[in-house]
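stage 2 :: seqdesign
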């Protein structure tokens, strides 16, 4: 109990650790003896170590007949390893005040650990963590239980307009590309233990792993930690690159009936990759278009002036291949067509005429002014280390971010949007649209 209270107190003041990193994040990088990439930031402000291991084992690695294997593999790795049950794993981590986390998206599966840096606590936490990564059991009983839970969750999501819209949008945008894969009760039900074992061996190898560390350790300690983690991982070759995304040949619109009074509308187009040369002009431009909340054009034109929507936004989601550029809005179902028409007009006007110098200046000030908040804890920096390592971004990415934002010109924004977003070939999904 004392350790837990102590760790919570440290987390509460973790923003103090940002004072050093805001002046510059010094990232050290190397490879382990068996090919894992390591990204490390040394920071002794707090007696905490944060680490993550990231694999090219995201949902895009699934096969449609059993879509869901990737997610099930990542989750079950934490629910039984080296003969330890999920209850024992949770108990032993709690005893030393350690926190296990992680996530999965289309590109990447990640496993995080936060622990006190004191040797007795960290060694015990790291021991459990390495077992999870190196010796997952995939217990049959746990798989059966979790499949039932996931199927029930998918059935519930299939009744929610927001989930329906999101799934339909990704299918429409990516068609047969792996980014368009979607788990359903029918694809999860036939998943077997051997499917998880095979997926683990194929996609959790050291050669494709990215290890990120930040905290109260030296370079020598970080090297030993990285070696201990990577040494027991599968020897599989680095997974092949995800296939390139094909642009839509023509516009499409799908209307899905739903009894909800509120209509959910998504429209979009394949956007950018990580490390894309157009990323910063598109990022700044999108802040002005729909990413800046109440100061964005979409909010001003569609919500504030006309009152046609409850909310409206836009974003680019850079991925290993072209991630989506998406505009989303929620409105009364009887206003769906009017709201959608105005959104399209606002986008077309934005692309054709570009941004004003006053809009550009305000956007840069807001983006650069808020950037330090993205680095105000070790946990946030850890996430950036993982992204920098996984997508092979420059080690100076964080130091250069504000400079790159300030370099963006209005002409660059207009040029990038004109080349990268085609309003005449966008996909549109409307759930609960129409007057009835």
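stage 2 :: out
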């Amino acid at each position: 109990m004392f350790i837990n209270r102590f760790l919570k107190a440290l987390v509460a003041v973790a923003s103090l650790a940002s004072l050093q990193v805001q002046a510059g994040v010094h990232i050290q990088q190397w490879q382990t003896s068996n090919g894992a990439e390591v990204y490390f930031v040394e920071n002794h402000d707090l007696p905490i170590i944060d680490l993550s291991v990231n694999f090219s084992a995201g949902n895009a690695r699934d096969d449609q007949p059993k879509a869901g294997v990737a997610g099930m593999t990542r989750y079950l790795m934490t629910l039984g390893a080296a003969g330890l049950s999920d209850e024992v794993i949770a108990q032993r981590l709690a005893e030393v005040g350690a926190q296990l986390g992680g996530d999965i998206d289309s590109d990447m599966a990640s496993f995080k650990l936060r622990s006190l840096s004191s040797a007795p606590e960290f060694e015990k936490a790291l021991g459990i963590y390495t077992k999870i990564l190196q010796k997952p059991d995939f217990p049959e009983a746990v798989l059966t239980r979790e499949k039932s839970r996931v199927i029930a969750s998918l059935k519930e999501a299939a009744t929610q307009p927001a989930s329906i819209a999101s799934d339909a949008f990704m299918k429409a945008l990516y068609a047969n590309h792996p980014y368009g894969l979607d788990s359903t009760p029918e694809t999860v039900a036939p998943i077997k233990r051997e499917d998880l074992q095979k997926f683990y061996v194929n996609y959790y190898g050291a050669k494709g792993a990215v290890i990120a560390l930040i905290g109260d350790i030296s370079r020598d300690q970080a090297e030993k930690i990285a070696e201990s983690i990577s040494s027991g991982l599968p020897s599989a070759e680095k997974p092949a690159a995800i296939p390139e995304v094909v642009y839509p040949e023509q516009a499409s619109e799908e209307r899905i009936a739903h009894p909800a009074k509120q209509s959910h509308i998504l429209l979009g187009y394949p956007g950018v990759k990580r490390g894309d040369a157009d990323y910063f002009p598109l990022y700044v431009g999108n802040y002005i278009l729909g990413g800046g909340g109440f100061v964005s054009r979409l909010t001003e034109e569609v919500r504030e002036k006309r009152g046609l929507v409850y909310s409206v936004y836009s974003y680019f989601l850079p991925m290993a291949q072209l991630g989506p550029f998406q505009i989303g809005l929620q409105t009364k179902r009887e206003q769906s067509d009017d709201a959608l028409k105005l959104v399209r007009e606002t986008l077309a006007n934005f692309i054709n005429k570009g941004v004003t110098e006053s809009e550009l200046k305000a956007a840069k000030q807001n983006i650069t002014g808020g950037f330090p908040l993205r680095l105000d804890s070790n946990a946030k920096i850890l996430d950036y280390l993982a992204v920098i390592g996984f997508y092979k971004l420059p080690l100076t990415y964080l130091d250069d971010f504000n400079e790159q934002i300030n370099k963006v010109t209005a002409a660059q924004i207009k040029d990038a949007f004109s080349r990268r977003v085609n309003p005449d070939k966008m996909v549109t999904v409307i759930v609960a649209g129409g007057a009835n």
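stage 3 :: structure notes
- Residues 1-23 have pLDDT under 50 and may be disordered.
- DSSP finds 17 helices and 13 strands in the chain.
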